Amino acid sequence: MIRLNTDNLNVGYGEHLIVKNLNVEIPDKKITTIIGSNGCGKSTLLKAITRIISHRSGSIVLDGKDITKENTKVLAKKMAILPQTPDIINGLTVGELVSYGRFPYQKGFGRLSNRDIEVIDWALEVTGTSTFKYRSVDALSGGQRQRVWIAMALAQETEIIFLDEPTTYLDMAHQLEVLELLQRLNIEQDRTIIMVLHDLNQAARFADYIIALKDGEVVKAGNSEEVINRSVLKKVFHIDAEIGRDPRTNKPMCITYNLIKGEQKNEKDLDSISTIAHAVH
C-alpha cells in the first residue's frame, strides 16, 4: 500500500536544482532507507516531503492530498521528522523536550492534558529513556540523546517518521541500538520509517525498501537484493564493490570496495570540456 508519493518533484536552492523530476513511492508500514553520496539530494528530499522547505514544481501526495494544501497541525499528526542535527535548548529536561511532540494536539494556552502526559510517559518507556525524564538533555550521551529525540517524534503520535542520518556521530553500539529501536517500532507499532543512512550494510540489514539517489535522481529503488549490488553501487558511488552475504541476516553486504579512479577522472574531464564549451558559446 502506498500512502505517500512524489510526482515529478523539483526542489532547489537559488538557481541550483537539487531534486529533479523525482518520482518515488514510500511503502506503508515499512522501513525505507535513502542512500547516495553527499550532496545528491537525500536531506533535501526529506525536507521537501515534510514541508520544511518548499518545492519548485511537481507534487507531494499524502493520503491522496497535496501536502501544500494540508493544514499544518493536521499534517503534524500524520508525519514527524528528526533532523540531522536537532537544536537543543540549554537546560531543557528530557520530559520537557518530549512534551514538544504534543504541540499538534494542544489548544488554548498549551497546557498538557492527562492524555498528553500518558503519551509522553509511553514514548519515554518505549525508547528506554524514562529514567532520564528529569535530566538535562545536554547532559546525555549521544546515543541517549538520539533515543530522546525519537521519543519526541513518537509523542507526536504520527504513523510516519522521517529521520535524517539518525546514526551520525554515534559509536557502533549506539548506532545498532537506535536502528534496532526503529525496527522494533516498525514491527510492533506499524510505524512507517523513512531514513537517510550512509552505511550501506546498515541500509541492507534494516530496510525493507531502499532508494538510491544520484544528482537528485533515482538510480534504483527496491529491496536490498535489487539495490545493494555492484552495478547500482558503481553508478551511485563510483566504486567497484565486492558484495557478500551477512551471515546473520543473509542480506547482501559490501565487503570491500575500490574507487573507480579512471572513470572518475574521465567524468571530471567531460565536465571541464562541457564548461569550456559553454564559455565559448
UniProtKB/TrEMBL annotation:
Gene Ontology MF: a single term: ATP hydrolysis activity
Annotated keywords: ATP-binding, Cell membrane, Ion transport, Iron, Iron transport, Membrane, Nucleotide-binding, Transport
Membrane topology category: Peripheral membrane protein
Cellular location(s): Cell membrane
All copies of domain ABC transporter, residue ranges: 4-240
Keyword Ribosomal protein in record: no
GO cellular component, one term: plasma membrane
UniProt keyword Metal-binding present: no
GO terms (BP aspect): iron ion transport
InterPro entries in alphabetical order: AAA+_ATPase, ABC_transporter-like_ATP-bd, ABC_transporter-like_CS, P-loop_NTPase, Siderophore_ABC-ATPase
Protein name: ABC transporter ATP-binding protein
